[in-house]
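Hi R.,

As promised on Friday, here is the backbone we talked about, encoded as structure tokens. Could you run it through your design pipeline when you get a chance and send me back a sequence?
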């Protein structure tokens, strides 16, 4: 049995709770044990370092150390969390060898709070990478009970998953294939379009809302133009901008949208035969009825 120290992140416990429930649902079916890190804190979503790199490193050294104390890899299901925590892990592993004073400074702050020290002994791995490198696509395919044949899926990777870490051993950051390979294993048809590796616009949404929505709209229209029935993302922040704000985005781009946006674990859950309601597919702003009609025909 695969076991992971599960880092759910903030958004999956708030605005996108269906991501948390669907991740737990597919893990149960696949026989993956998740040990939730209930004492973990927010990764900072890339904003901590705007004030202090030391702050970002210390906060996430603590998160990683929680997983290390269990002797388990830290599992995320959020592109942003993966990018931030994974990059901190890279930086601190390098500091352990090449900048020991900084490494000790970070652990010194952890010691003041009676936290376990960061040791650099584990991995930070997104559920997408875990399914491919640890579980295996062949094993995943064997678990499919409800083929997604006929469903055309457009991946939306999220920039943090592809371009924050220096080393990306599981995919090509400029021409990724991992999501599309998962789609094929589930019986779905991958849709390739330029927007799949672009930014959703979320980071701009608080201070340049119209530009953010224009970015999201262009990506949605691009996927629709290529014939996608739905967009699937491994990032809850991308999901928020592409799904929950889609009605507002449509007004900005001046075109009708209405394309469903699924979290990656939700799509996998459908192929595993998990009921849509248990996956939280009824919680989306854009109805997922179209997706269910296609796979149930």
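Update: got your reply. Pasting your designed sequence below so it's all in one thread:
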């Amino acid at each position: 049995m695969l076991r992971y120290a599960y880092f759910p992140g903030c958004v999956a416990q708030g605005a996108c709770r269906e991501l948390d429930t669907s991740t737990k649902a597919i893990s149960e079916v696949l026989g993956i044990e998740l040990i939730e890190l209930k004492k973990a804190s927010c990764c900072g979503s890339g904003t901590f370092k705007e004030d202090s790199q030391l702050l970002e490193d210390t906060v996430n050294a603590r998160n990683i150390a929680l997983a290390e104390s269990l002797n388990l890899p830290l599992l995320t299901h959020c592109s942003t969390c993966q990018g931030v925590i994974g990059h901190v892990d890279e930086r601190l592993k390098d500091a352990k060898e090449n900048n020991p004073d900084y490494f000790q400074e970070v652990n010194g702050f952890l010691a003041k709070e009676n936290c376990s020290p960061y040791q650099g002994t584990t991995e930070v791995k997104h559920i997408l990478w875990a399914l491919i490198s640890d579980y295996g696509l062949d094993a995943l395919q064997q678990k499919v009970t409800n083929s997604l044949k006929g469903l055309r899926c457009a991946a939306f990777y999220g920039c943090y998953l592809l371009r924050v870490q220096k080393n990306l051993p599981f995919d090509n950051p400029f021409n990724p294939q991992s999501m599309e390979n998962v789609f094929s294993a589930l019986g779905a048809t991958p849709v390739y379009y330029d927007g799949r590796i672009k930014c959703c616009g979320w980071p701009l949404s608080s201070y340049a809302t119209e530009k953010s929505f224009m970015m999201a709209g262009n990506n949605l229209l691009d996927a629709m133009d290529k014939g996608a029935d739905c967009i699937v993302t491994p990032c809850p922040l991308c999901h928020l901008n592409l799904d929950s704000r889609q009605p507002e985005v449509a007004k900005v781009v001046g075109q009708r949208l209405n394309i469903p946006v699924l979290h990656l674990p939700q799509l996998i859950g459908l192929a595993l035969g998990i009921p849509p309601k248990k996956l939280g597919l009824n919680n989306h702003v854009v109805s997922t009825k179209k997706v269910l009609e296609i796979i149930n025909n």
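One thing I noticed while checking it: Residues 79-98 form the longest helix (20 residues).

Thanks again,
M.
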